[in-house]
Amino acid sequence: MSSLQEEIEERGSQIFHLVDQNPESIFSKAGFYQRMMAFSMRDEHFKVQMFRFVDVLASLRNSRDIVQHLDEYFADMRNGSVPFLQTGLRAARIFPWITAPVLRWNVTGMARQFIAGRNPDDVMKTLRKRRKERIGFTVDLLGEAVVSEQEADEYAARCFELLDGLAERTRGWADPLGKNTELFPVVNVSVKISAFYSQMNPADPEDAIAHLAPKLRPILRRAREVGAFINFDMESYAHKNTTLELFRRLFTEPEFRDWPHAGIVIQAYLRDAEKDLRDLIDWARERGTRFTVRLVKGAYWDYEKIKAAQNGWRVPVYLQKPESDANFEVCTRVLLDNQSIVTAAFGSHNVRSIAYAQACAQQLGIDKSRFEFQLLYGMAGPIKRALVEMGYRVREYSPVGELLPGMSYLVRRLLENTSNEGFLKAKFSDNASAAQLLRDPKELIGRRSPAPQDGGVSQKRPALPHSRNGQSLDTPVGDTYENSPLVNFVHRSGQEKMQTALREMRAKLGQKYPIVIDGRKIWTDNLIHSINPTSPTQVVGAVAEAHVEHAEDAVKAAKKAFEHWCRVSVEHRAELLERVAAIMDRRRFELSALEVYEVGKPWAEADGDIREAIDFLLFYAQQMRLRGLPRLTQHVPGEESYQHYWPRGVALVIAPWNFPMAILTGMVSAALVTGNTVIMKPAEQSAVCGAMLMEMFEEAGVPPGVLNFLPGKGRVIGQHLVDHKDVHMIAFTGSREVGLRIWESAGQTRPGQLELKRVVCEMGGKNAVIVDSDADLDEAIVDSIYSAFGYQGQKCSALSRLIVLEENYDRVVKRLLEAAASLRVGNPETPGIMVGPVIDETAYRRQLEAIEIGKKEATLAFQGTVPAEGFFVPPTIFTGVTAEMRLAREEIFGPVLSVMKVRDLDEAIRVANDTDYALTAGFFSRSPANIERIKAELVAGNVYINRSCTGAVVGRHPFGGFKMSGGGTKAGGGDYLLQFLVPRVVTENIMRHGFAPDTTPEFRAPFGAVSVGN
Ligand SMILES: Cc1cc2nc3c(=O)[nH]c(=O)nc-3n(C[C@H](O)[C@H](O)[C@H](O)COP(=O)(O)OP(=O)(O)OC[C@H]3O[C@@H](n4cnc5c(N)ncnc54)[C@H](O)[C@@H]3O)c2cc1C
Prior knowledge:
Layout: H1 3-20, H2 31-42, H3 44-57, H4 63-74, H5 83-94, H6 96-112, H7 120-132, E1 136-141, H8 149-169, E2 188-191, H9 205-226, E3 229-232, H10 240-250, E4 262-267, H11 273-287, E5 291-296, H12 301-311, H13 321-337, E6 342-347, H14 351-364, E7 372-376, H15 381-389, E8 394-400, H16 407-418, H17 423-429, H18 434-437, H19 441-444, H20 492-508, E9 511-513, E10 515-517, E11 520-522, E12 527-531, E13 539-544, H21 548-565, H22 570-586, H23 588-599, H24 603-627, E14 631-632, E15 639-647, E16 650-654, H25 662-673, E17 677-681, H26 687-700, E18 707-709, H27 714-722, E19 729-733, H28 736-746, E20 758-762, E21 767-771, H29 777-789, E22 799-805, H30 806-821, H31 841-857, E23 859-863, E24 876-879, H32 886-889, E25 896-902, H33 905-913, E26 917-918, E27 920-924, H34 928-937, E28 942-945, E29 962-963, E30 981-989
Parallel strand pairs: 1-2, 1-8, 2-3, 3-4, 4-5, 5-6, 6-7, 7-8, 9-13, 16-17, 16-19, 17-18, 19-20, 21-22, 21-27, 22-25, 24-25, 27-28
Antiparallel strand pairs: 10-11, 12-13, 14-15, 15-30, 23-24, 26-29
Helix pairs in contact: 1-14, 1-15, 2-3, 3-4, 4-5, 4-6, 5-6, 8-9, 9-10, 11-13, 13-14, 20-23, 21-27, 22-24, 22-26, 23-24, 24-25, 29-30
């Protein structure tokens, strides 16, 4: 055994010895909290329900609501494993006025276990007590979720007050160790950077720093004046790089360059941790002044893993607990090796991690008073006392605030205390031995595999063209399709690639693109100019305008090409789509940049559109493979019946401009992979995106005539093609007005027409979101704002009616208006812009008109300001909107939100469903019963609970509506391709003179392909 390990074990044993003299009371068996924790550790379902109940409790206002929620959360456990529940629930229903306050009192008591005080006055009691125990403090103001600049300013003001108050009330307090005191001011305040600016966007660190620095400077100045220390806490990975950069920038400024009393957190669970730490140390050496690093493992482990899995990102955290432990030790060593420039604060409750730091410091000859241990208020009390007794410097992290803003902190602590991976549970609840707890984490890596190696996301994604996602004919598709990742603009490389792409695209603007028919490029006299809506004098590109004769040629070419294409193997067609996906992936930033200019999409929206296009290509390729072989309908002796599909023939694809790559690609790829040939008509406003898609298909080797590019006027060629006898199906996405015309027109059979035309028609919505009286408003406000104003409200899924229960109405409206006022509106070339211009002058005028009508009907509660140039419509919110108003009935397709007040959930559902449309709808609530009800009763194609109502992901959220929202089935879903196919069954009697084969295979080879599209 190495001498370091011996030293660690010796020190660890000493800590345990001291701890065992006075074990952790929060893990004892008495009291509400203790019992709740014990059950939570035993029963995962109880734990989830209990923590959810705790999460909602603070926002419930009356006893009836509390008991109702209790009942709902634990309804399925009444007869189960938790004995006190049944009696408790019965009593609660009979005596709610007794039970509810007792429950609230218990949960508040539990919160008080982790929250050191309600306000700066209140916290002093705790701090004084700790002073007597020779434990220092760092105070943290709860309330990290700010949804508006107003709330951010309030947070900054409270920080000021806190600093002043602490400085005043601790005057004369001395350092507990009395040595190296200049490194450790008594007053220490921890701040959460995201609480100072509501519009932090990972893609735009410069904007965040520009807003944060002026808010932080006065606080730092005051801290310096009063001799306090300021620590920048670290939050989720999305904010990490900005927080580090802000720290470096501020403390390089002349005013703060020589000030040593600033600290920042490094999270050892991050794979980047060591590099970030070394970069900080290099920076500090250049700066020439010491600073502090609080080394922790990290509080957002589950969140980071889930977020990465949802977006297809590399998981930024280690996935095995011992890896985080080992990295904590690596970073400990780096810190202590550099103690001449950095003061170390070790934030851990893990005795092994603590003992490692002690042993390392001992080996390096560093005095105990030159670093400190920091532990959380309400946790690991005996360890704090042991460390004090051993002569170490101990500081307690003491959160201050009310229960409601402190809820996310409380839930993080509850999770930490019940985590199977956590040290505290192992030591104080599972009674693991000292030898087990003090093992070298490096030796444990790879031994246990509690977390899946990839957290549900593969670390190394296969290079495009994608594998077929491992599906086989026996595996359900939904289980195997792995979405293409979004670009993670947290990384500077992503930001730089986008900036470069924008620069290069700007230089290329104004190019001309031909019509493509039968593989031939055709130019015409007329050009359709595509305009940048941000800057309408700028021409993004021009496409040749097709006329009726071109439409005729295109139909002929597609009809001819169909004869061959319909016989081409499914595999061959699927591979074509996969090659296009690979090209799109290669050109990803270029295409996103084009969308910024051509349709005014903000960065992340543009990237989301390209990602969706790639997903459509890969998903439909996979789906078609699953349907490519004739499949036995039933096992019946003596007979075999196989169902299979034929393509329909010539498909006309008419696409909108709002998802210029995704929707176009989705419809085109579905038609092609099913064996149809296509005439593709992009929207005039996004014709260049259409030309790009054509280019990519050509590069991927689409045969002449199979895909024809026909930009032109809807009223001229669109109508002609819809009515054409040789067009067999129409896939349309766009306005209700045009959609209904197509539907009607396609319903007529014309001379020479041999097929009944199939129309896949996706239209608009008047989407509603209901906010329940117990909703988590931090979530509801942020998601509603995004749903209503993201991409200027120009998504068919966008929120346009926010229906709020009256109990919550005033609070929701106040925060909503403040949040809207904080939105970043402007040129979408700038990263982090959320609201850009609307698509064109017609839309601009129509929307301003709708706003004028709205002003006459309802109360204009908010209207933003917008740049003078470009088609910018100010984000607008109307309140007092009622069901009969035009505001509540007509689709506006722009940044206009109507807020409607209702009495109760019955009325809310009635109002939400009272519309011609049924596309998306949403609900924010923490009542399990209400959520269940909404799942059953909201009339919409896509119902979203406790999240935004936009942003459907292919395969995950098959998308599309009914009523006046659409007459097709879900895009990006398993059934979608069937609309492009004709089903066929071939039955053969295989019995000969009473003899038949025993078994018939499930699948058989394709029948020699023949079309029904003549
Ligand atoms: C004073 C103080 C301040 C803090 N400030 C911050 C802060 O600003 N930002 C922040 O993010 N955290 C912060 N933390 C850390 C966080 O709140 C947890 O307390 C800490 O991560 C628990 O680690 P531990 O060493 O005490 O316990 P341990 O039980 O040894 O470690 C638990 C930690 O291991 C990690 N982990 C759990 N499971 C896995 C797994 N499967 N794979 C990999 N790693 C895993 C997680 O980080 C988890 O929190 C702070 C902690 C303290 C004590």
